[in-house]
Amino acid sequence: MASENGKQETSSTIKVKITKKYNVKPKKNIGKKECQLITFDLPYLGFFYNQKLLIYKGNGSDYEEMVGKLKDGLSRVLEEFYQLGGKLGRDDDGVFKVMYDDDMDGVEVLEAILDHDGNNDDGDNHDSMVANVDELASKEISFMKDLIPYNGILNLEGLHLPLLAIQLTKLRDGLAMGCAFNHAVLDGTSTWHFMSSWADICCGAPSISLPPFLDRTKARSTRVSLNIPDAPPQPESTTPTPLREKLFRFPETAIEKIKAALNSGKGDSIPFSTFQSLSTHIWRAITSARGLKPEEPTVFTIFVDCRKRVSPPMPDSYFGNLIQAVFTGTASGMVTGNPPEFAAGMIQAAIKAHDAAAIENRNKEFEGSPIIFQFKDAGMNCVAVGSSPRFKVYDVDFGFGKPEWVRSGTNNRFDGMVYLYPGKDGGKSIDVEISLEARAMEVLEKDNKFLLDGEVI
């Protein structure tokens, strides 16, 4: 967060200075709108804002020109995605909702510069700016955390804060776009639907090709009352020791090796998917790196998109959270001591079992005794997978080229949290962001059987 002099430190050698702060609203009046948060949304009120960082090279575009294009496109895309310009609210029964009114502030936008020693007050001396795109891309996300707003801000604070904050930081040769989305309002599918729609508008599209489906009550209409204290406890960390975050880049050759090896003896049974194969590879490697005793438990957690699993199915354009956490687990020795097909079979069975009936039962269970999830609820010695290599994050081109890097921020990271993204090289390559206790991460980095043909950053 900013200090009294307006500067933010990310390390001993990098500083971020906020130069402008303003709000962007829909270009046209929307009026007063309300939308009830539903059972799928509510468990995430106790998580932090979901953060994404996209780093772009300017490709000859001027920074001010880039920002102007982004601001204009944002005001236009918010005409459809106006909920992101609103706030959270509660009615007299304690039911949460998204509220929008033309008098609200809209999306918060910050502009910033990097400087080397904190003495580049006007930002005109580009030589003193500390990083270009390639230099930033080689850093751990903890080094870059202040390129993204709302660090450590709970989704519940959307009662008072904007539901979306964007920070545009000037680099020597480009721009870093840090976004913080209120995770009680939207999931990953909706996040990238918004981002791609915004990019299309900036590139000249006259309108959004796939408008968001905004009526959440079509997926679940049950009103759930929550009693939330004014100052809820912060989510608890699952480890008392510092975490390390690393990006493991698996090229298509590595992904094919992992999948082929797992399916080599599968026969006529349902083959393991790419996701199931890579998930098994990650679960086994992390469990081994942790050095757990054979009898100690380990849990694998997946956040499953339920759009096509609910009855009736919801469209891909459904805007909100339509995810549920799916769990499977066993003793650590069973995961590492058996062939990989054992763990893969557990993951495959858990995903297959999460059908419309299972989703309905989960919703009813929550509605009968609603709780706000915290990280510890992911399970003992867990490996939890979020995001998806199906999200076309490297297609988000605002008119000055595709992003050089896409990363998750420092929010909502805990020991065992994994984010999957498609690799920048395309094809079947996948980037795997992993957060682990430092000692386990050191072991994982040296595990050649885990990395295969990939690289670690």
Description:
It is built from 10 helices and 17 strands. With about 450 residues, the chain is α+β, with helices and mostly antiparallel strands. A 7-stranded mixed β-sheet has the order 1-2-7-8-9-4-14. A 7-stranded mixed β-sheet has the order 12-11-13-15-16-10-17. A 3-stranded antiparallel β-sheet has the order 3-6-5, with no helix packed on it. Strand 8 and strand 9 form a beta hairpin. Helix 4 (about 250-265) crosses helix 5 (about 275-290), helix 5 packs across helix 7 (about 340-355) and helix 5 crosses helix 9 (about 440-445).
Which key features would you list for this structure?
457 residues; alpha+beta; 7-stranded mixed beta sheet; 10 helices; globular; disordered N terminus
Q: Which overall shape is indicated by the principal axes computed on the Cα atoms?
A: globular
Strand content: 15-25%
Q: What are the segments in which pLDDT stays under 50 over at least 5 consecutive residues?
A: 1-13, 118-130
Radius of gyration: 22 Å
The ordered H/E elements are EEEEHEEEHEEHEHHEEHHHEEEEHHE
The main sheet orders its strands as 1-2-7-8-9-4-14
> Please, how many helices?
10
- The percent of residues in helical segments reads 10-25%
How would you sum up this structure in a few lines?
This is anthranilate N-benzoyltransferase. Catalyzes the formation of N-benzoylanthranilate, in the course of methoxydianthramide B, a phytoalexin. Phytoalexins are produced in response to infection by parasites, and are essential for the expression of disease resistance. By secondary structure, the protein is α+β, with helices and mostly antiparallel strands.
